[in-house]
C-alpha cells in the first residue's frame, strides 16, 4: 500500500469510492440472488426443464434465505473481531461463490437448496460487516451518500437478475451473478485493512498508514482520537470483562421492564412486517404469479417485471434526496397509506374481475395500481425500517436490539416468502392481497401510535421520549460512566443496526 500519506495519484475521495465499490458489488450480487428465484420460476416450471420444480419447492428455495441469514450473522461478528474486516470479507465472498457454482452445476433440487443456503449464509455475514466497513473507512462527509449505495446495489441486483434471466438460461444467469462477487474479491485484495481494527490490535503504525491512505493528511485529529480510544480500551479491559460476564440474559431481563427498550422493540417488529408484507418480496420472487394474475395470460411478464424493477430503482434513488427533507413520521405514514390503498385497489379490482362485475377494464388499471405499490415500496416500506432501526434503539442495549432486528427480520422474511404461494392457492390473488392489506393496516396503526418524530433529534432525546421522561442527574452520571467504558468499542465498530434491506 504505497503512498500512504494520501498525496499520490488518487484523492481520498477516489480511494474511499474504490473500497465502497467492493461492498456495492457484493450487495448487488446478493440482490441478484433474490431476483434469481423469479428466473428459476420462469425456466424450471416448464415441460422439459433440466430440473422440474413445483411451486412448493420454489417457495422453499426462496424462503431458505431467512434461516441462513441468522447463521451468517452470528458467524460474522467473531470473524470480524478476531481476523479483521478484510479477511471477514473473504469469508463472505467464499460461500457466495461456492453457492453460485453449485447452483450453476446443479442437476437436482437438493443442489439448488445447498446453493441457496450458502448464499444466504454469505448474505447474513455481510449485513453487519458492510455497515462496519463503510463506517470505519469513510469520512463523515462521504458516509451518508456512500452508505446509500447499499439500497441501490440491492435494487440494481434484482433488476439485473430479472433482465439477464429473461434472455439467457438460468445457469448462465447464475454465472454472470457470480462475477459480481469476483469483482468484489479483486477490489478487496487491493484495499487496506480497517484502521480501526489495526488500532484495536495495537498495530498503530499500520493503522496510521491505512488511515492516511484512505483519508489523506487532513484528519489527523480523528486518527489521534482513534488511537487514544484504543489505549482507553486497554485500560478498561477489566471493566469490560466484568460487564460481559453479567451475561446477555441478565441484561435482557433488566431491560424488558424499561419502556425505552420494549417500545422500540414493538415498534420495529411492526415496521418489519410493513417492509416484508408490502409486496416487495412477493414481486421480486414471484413476479409471474402476480403480474400474470393481474393482467392475464396475454401479459408480457418479463417486460413488466423489468419495468417495475427499474421503477423501484428510481424510487430508491429519489428517497436518498427526499428523506433528508421530509419528517420520518410523514414519510412513513404517506408511503404506508399509499401501500395500503394500492393493496385495497388491487384486491378490489381482482375480485370484481373474477366475478365479472367490472363495467370497464383495461390493462393500464392493474398496472397503475401495481406501480403505486412499487412506489410505496421503494420510497418508504423497505428503506424506512432500516432508517428507524438506527435511531430508536437505546444505546445501552443497542447490540441486543441489533441481534433482535436480524432474527425478527429473518423470521418475517421466511414467513412471507413461504406462505405467499399457499395463500395464492387457497384464496387466490385477491384474497392474498386482502390478507396483506389487513397485516399492513394493523402494523401501520401500531407504528404510527408508537413512532415519535426522530428527524433532527439526538439519540438521547429519542430515548427520553420512549422513557416518558429525561434521565435524572444521578442517572445521567451513571450513564456517562458506562459510556466511557463502552465508547471505545462503539466508536471502533461504528456499525449501524442491521436489518434486511430487500
UniProtKB/TrEMBL annotation:
Alphabetic keyword roster: Membrane, Transmembrane, Transmembrane helix
Signal peptide: none
InterPro entries named in the record: MFS_dom (IPR020846), MFS_sugar_transport-like (IPR005828), MFS_trans_sf (IPR036259), MFS_Trehalose_Transporter (IPR050549)
Principal place of residence: membrane
Pfam families for this protein: Sugar_tr
Keyword Transmembrane: yes
Domain Major facilitator superfamily (MFS) profile: residue ranges: 19-455
Source organism, top-level taxon: Eukaryota
Subcellular location: Membrane
Ranges that cross the membrane: 17-37, 57-76, 88-107, 170-191, 265-284, 331-352, 364-383, 395-413, 433-451
Protein name, per record: Major facilitator superfamily (MFS) profile domain-containing protein
Membrane topology category: Multi-pass membrane protein
Amino acid at each position: 500500500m504505497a503512498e500512504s500519506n494520501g498525496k499520490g495519484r488518487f484523492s481520498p475521495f477516489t480511494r474511499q469510492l474504490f473500497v465502497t465499490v467492493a461492498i456495492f458489488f457484493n450487495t448487488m450480487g446478493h440482490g441478484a440472488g433474490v431476483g434469481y428465484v423469479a428466473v428459476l420460476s420462469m425456466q424450471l416450471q416448464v415441460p422439459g426443464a433440466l430440473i422440474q420444480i413445483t411451486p412448493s419447492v420454489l417457495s422453499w428455495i426462496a424462503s431458505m434465505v431467512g434461516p441462513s441469514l441468522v447463521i451468517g450473522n452470528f458467524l460474522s461478528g467473531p470473524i470480524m473481531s478476531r481476523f479483521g474486516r478484510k479477511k471477514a470479507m473473504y469469508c463472505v465472498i467464499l460461500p457466495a461463490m461456492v453457492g453460485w457454482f453449485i447452483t450453476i452445476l446443479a442437476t437436482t433440487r437438493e443442489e439448488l437448496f445447498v446453493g441457496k443456503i450458502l448464499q444466504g449464509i454469505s448474505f447474513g455475514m455481510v449485513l453487519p460487516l458492510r455497515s462496519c466497513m463503510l463506517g470505519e473507512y469513510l469520512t463523515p462527509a462521504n458516509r451518508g451518500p456512500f452508505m446509500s449505495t447499499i439500497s441501490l446495489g440491492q435494487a440494481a441486483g434484482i433488476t439485473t437478475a430479472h433482465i439477464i434471466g429473461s434472455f439467457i438460461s438460468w445457469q448462465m444467469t447464475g454465472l454472470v451473478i457470480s462475477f459480481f462477487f469476483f469483482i468484489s474479491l479483486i477490489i478487496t485484495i487491493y484495499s487496506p485493512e480497517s484502521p480501526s481494527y489495526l488500532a484495536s490490535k495495537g498495530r498503530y503504525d499500520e493503522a496510521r498508514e491505512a488511515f492516511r491512505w484512505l483519508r489523506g493528511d487532513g484528519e489527523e485529529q480523528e486518527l489521534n482520537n482513534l488511537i487514544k480510544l484504543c489505549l482507553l480500551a486497554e485500560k478498561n479491559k477489566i471493566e469490560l470483562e466484568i460487564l460481559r460476564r453479567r451475561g446477555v440474559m441478565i441484561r435482557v431481563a433488566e431491560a424488558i421492564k424499561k419502556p425505552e427498550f420494549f417500545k422500540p422493540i414493538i415498534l420495529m417488529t411492526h415496521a418489519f412486517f410493513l417492509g416484508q408484507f408490502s409486496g416487495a418480496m412477493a414481486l421480486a420472487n414471484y413476479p409471474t404469479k402476480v403480474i400474470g394474475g393481474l393482467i392475464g395470460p396475454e401479459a408480457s411478464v418479463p417486460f413488466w417485471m423489468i419495468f417495475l424493477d427499474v421503477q423501484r430503482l428510481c424510487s430508491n434513488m429519489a428517497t436518498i434526496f427526499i428523506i433528508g427533507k421530509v419528517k420520518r413520521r410523514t414519510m412513513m405514514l404517506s408511503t404506508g397509506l399509499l401501500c395500503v390503498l394500492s393493496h385495497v385497489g388491487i384486491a378490489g379490482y381482482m375480485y370484481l374481475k373474477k366475478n365479472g362485475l367490472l363495467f370497464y377494464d383495461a390493462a393500464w388499471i392493474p398496472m397503475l395500481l401495481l406501480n403505486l405499490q412499487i412506489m410505496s415500496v421503494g420510497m418508504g416500506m423497505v428503506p424506512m425500517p432500516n432508517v428507524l432501526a438506527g435511531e430508536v434503539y437505546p444505546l445501552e442495549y443497542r447490540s441486543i436490539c441489533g441481534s433482535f432486528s436480524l432474527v425478527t427480520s429473518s423470521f418475517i422474511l421466511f414467513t412471507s416468502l413461504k406462505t405467499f404461494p399457499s395463500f395464492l392457492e387457497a384464496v387466490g390473488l385477491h384474497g392474498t392481497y386482502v390478507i396483506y392489506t389487513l397485516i399492513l393496516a394493523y402494523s401501520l396503526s401500531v407504528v404510527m401510535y408508537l413512532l415519535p418524530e426522530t428527524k433532527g433529534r439526538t439519540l438521547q432525546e429519542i430515548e427520553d421520549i420512549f422513557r416518558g421522561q429525561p434521565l435524572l442527574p444521578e442517572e445521567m452520571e451513571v450513564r456517562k460512566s458506562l459510556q466511557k467504558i463502552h465508547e471505545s468499542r462503539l466508536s471502533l465498530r461504528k456499525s449501524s443496526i442491521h436489518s434486511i434491506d430487500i
